[in-house]
Amino acid sequence: xxxxxxxxxxxxxxxxxxxxxxxxxxxxxxxxxxxxxxxxxxxxxxxxxxxxxxxxxxxxxxxxxxxxxxxxxxxxxxxxxxxxxxxxxxxxxxxxxxxxxxxxxxxxxxxxxxxxxxxxxxxxxxxxxxxxxxxxxxxxxxxxxxxxxxxxxxxxxxxxxxxxxxxxxxxxxxxxxxxxxxxxxxxxxxxxxxxxxxxxxxxxxxxxxxxxxxxxxxxxxxxxxxxxxxxxxxxxxxxxxxxxxxxxxxxxxxxxxxxxxxxxxxxxxxxxxxxxxxxxxxxxxxxxxxxxxxxxxxxxxxxxxxxxxxxxxxxxxxxxxxxxxxxxxxxxxxxxxxxx
Length: 340
Description:
The chain has helices at residues 25-32, 38-46, 117-128, 154-162, 164-167, 193-199, 246-253, 299-305, 311-321; strands at 13-18, 23-24, 50-52, 55-57, 63-64, 69-73, 86-91, 95-100, 135-136, 146-151, 168-178, 185-188, 220-229, 232-240, 275-283, 290-294. By secondary structure, the chain is an alpha+beta fold. The chain folds into 2 domains: 13-73, RNA-binding S4 domain (Structural Genomics Hypothetical 15.5 Kd Protein In mrcA-pckA Intergenic Region, Chain A), CATH 3.10.290; 82-189 and 219-320, Pseudouridine synthase, CATH 3.30.2350.
């Protein structure tokens, strides 16, 4: 792919100086910018444009020692992105990758919803540059913690979306499902409701044909069994493609993720959805470098795996696994017909 330049103001190194004696940071900036005023030096500090030994320096009271390295940049560095639900993992001139926790939608799902991953990240970068725009590349359900990737210009977004398998080499998830899956590995082949909806979403710069409905797309998901517990199985799932329908496909298979609501769940040991993203392998379309990101599986999933069935759960499982032909026919439950 050709090197696409962003509309953002690019950060450039203005000056670099290695301190030859102990002094204050303002005195040192006089060496960096001898033709600028002290007021300008303080403004650079407020705008987070100065790095001291690789760390952003904002205080004019900071002491600089002999051998310290000062670097001044044309555009300041934003303070760390920190919220209880989002953590910035990696960024460059073309992409932003964040880790989201469960409980936060990727984008707004109803009118007036402002606290989403997209809105929080967009507002964060606009605080540093009012012209900054971000473009979403993938989504996760509100209940699923994991990785969200953004492009920093529309051309990069379109390139990745149109060649998803070329650049997103792997996306993997760890999930604890109900039931004992006998095979050590396999594929989920049923068509998911989630992937059907995603397939009808709009792709940038492509005209949508409204004369007929777009054919549903299938998300191929392979799985490996990591461990088994009492009527529960820990799976490592790999998503092959852009359209994520793991939750629906597992439910259709008869093995819903623990914590699912209204999808045939029998185990009520948790209110949290027992799934998390584990890995993402990404090929950078501009630099050609591979980036591999891994997340730890939360401890509560392992605790659920080791849990024991309650008597009510055992009864529900027995009821589910008993064939209809073998169930007792209870005549006492039939009410007599009243004659008029």
